[in-house]
Design brief:
The complex is a heterodimer of chains A (381) and B (254).
Chain A: H1 8-35, H2 40-48, H3 67-80, H4 82-102, H5 105-116, E1 121-125, E2 141-145, E3 148-159, E4 166-176, E5 179-186, E6 192-194, E7 208-219, E8 223-224, H6 230-266, E9 268-269, E10 272-273, H7 278-306, H8 312-337, H9 348-355, H10 365-375
Parallel strand pairs in A: 1-4
Antiparallel strand pairs in A: 2-3, 3-7, 4-5, 5-8, 6-7, 9-10
Helix pairs in contact in A: 1-3, 3-4, 3-6, 4-5, 4-6, 6-7, 6-8, 7-8, 8-9, 8-10
Chain B: E1 2-6, E2 9-10, E3 33-34, H1 38-52, E4 57-63, H2 70-78, E5 82-86, H3 96-110, E6 114-118, H4 129-137, E7 141-151, E8 154-160, E9 165-170, E10 174-178, H5 190-196, E11 201-204, H6 206-209, H7 240-250
Parallel strand pairs in B: 1-4, 1-6, 4-5, 5-11, 6-10, 7-10
Antiparallel strand pairs in B: 2-3, 7-8, 8-9
Helix pairs in contact in B: 2-5, 3-4
The chains are: A alpha+beta (381), B alpha/beta (254).
Chain lengths: 381, 254
Amino acid sequence: MVRYELSDEHEAFRKVVREFAEAEIAPHASDWDRRHHFPVGTVRKMGDLGLFGLPFPEEYGGAGGDFTSLCVAIEEIGRVDQSMGITLEAGVGLGINPIATFGSKEQKQRWLPDLVTGKALAAFGLTEPDAGSDAGATKTKATLDGDEWVINGTKAFITNSGTPITSLITVTARTGPEEISSIIVPAGSPGLTVEPPYEKMGWRASDTHGLVFDDCRVPAGNLVGERGHGFQEFLATLDDGRIGVAALSLGLAQACLEASVDYAKSRVAFGAPIGRNQGIAFQCADLEVMVDASRLLTYRAAALKDAGRPIKQAAAVAKLYASEAAVTATRIAAQIHGGAGFIEEGPIARYYRDAKILEIGEGTSEIQRLVISRGLGLPVA
Amino acid sequence: MRIAVCVKQIPDPAAPYELDPETHFVVRPEDQVLDDTDRYGVEVALQLAEAAGDDASVTLVSMSPSGSLQGIRQALAMGADKAVIVDDASLRGADALTTSRVIAAAIGREGYDVVVAGTESTDGYTGVVPQQIAEVLGAPSLTFARKVEAVDGKIRIERQTQAGYDVVEAAPPVLLTVTSGAVEPRYPTFKGIMQAKQKPIDTLTCTDLGVTADNQQVITSVDPVPARQAGEIVEDEGEGHLRIVAMLEEAKVI
């Protein structure tokens, strides 16, 4: 029989993460957001809970779990705080994943034990001021000089790249006219400048910087995977990440649903709870549909990943739908809450600001539609 | 070091529960959760075992209808090695003394150096079971520990008192009760949850233990806390403080 529910163990894990999120994160989320504060201590606690090691082998300190369990964790953290949700999602999907998937044994032994336990964070430097969706336009260059790579260029919007516990950034760079490769740049490498954090509309407690590489030298052995295969490697990495962003989006939509239903039951206008009006009740019904659909798409993609089946199409479908649903859900939640949804004393305004980036990060909605339409066999533009 | 931890599965306190109108017993659902106060006991046991080294073991001991064993698995997922459950229809509504005899028999059967318990259960609240277990086992009880450590082959605790704390120690075999807040219970990890599925859970009956239910206490009635009376709203027209002072004097609080 087809199962549309997670296993008992995944649900037991959900309870643990929810309890953790409500005790350790939810009470502070608004304050961290207001102060643009990245809470290192809380990230370490997420590490103690094993969240960063979920899909990785026990050999390197991972939990030997699966991708589904990671999605459960991202959803539950994202339900109370999108900033901490993306910190986890990017830490695992963009930070650890390239090294765990394509790294050499030495690289894994050196970097993974601290990364999978949340003692350190890794970042992935792909986007540039002039190369985002069009990653083929990457300008950053890496030239081999003896036994060192010399890296020059600029990266933009790099999550987790400047935290006090960031240990490395995997950077994509041109290593030849027609080749892109991935290279590990340890934090603090000479010639690497981490620019001041961006002033963001949302995800304010998450750590995002521009990076400048000015004759930044790293050992030749820091090449990840094969020289010239950087493009294919990060495309594979991004497929996984899209499921993670779908889970993050689902958490936000779930939060909107819960807050909206509570408010529709308790807020009284014209002598009755506003939820008695179909104008409000039907919007809550729409939220329920969005949450359900996002959940099914997200966990279907995660289940395919865990089964070792192709995920490109399912991941793009889940990411596209869930992120757009999350943006719509925050708009509906704000409308149901009226003025209370527009002030920062409650969480709705934060949800609203946090949502938009979900349609942009780790592949814009346009890129998802491109991937999906190509998957349908339509001619490539 | 063999450590036994007394744990209890109780109905989820966040969900509404029912009392049987005849017996006044809680109607126990299939899914019960680990009593929150027991998480402190489990944590103390795990810390003692970790400090003692590889040959230490932590065994959960519980008396309750097994149900889905959800609450027991919560404690196994934290890191306990195995569980022993006494599940016997004749123990339904067992009083505190019967409960203590049964649990002591189960602990004695397993063998132990240290027994760890919370101070009381959240559903029954008699608050006497751990001390009675110690009595039946013939072991000293170190109660209301806010800090526990193994020092020179002894268990040393800081016993919470109203004025401060006493430092008390005893050599194993020993029972200790742990106050909520003594330690910060760990969250189960996903790995722990998956491992908990494989850990042994022995289910025993009274016959296995050679004990019989002998209840001498009966709950004759259960009365709810009186509903709060509606408050009085005083419109303050500059004299409100006088009315408040008068009310406080009337209530003899100032």
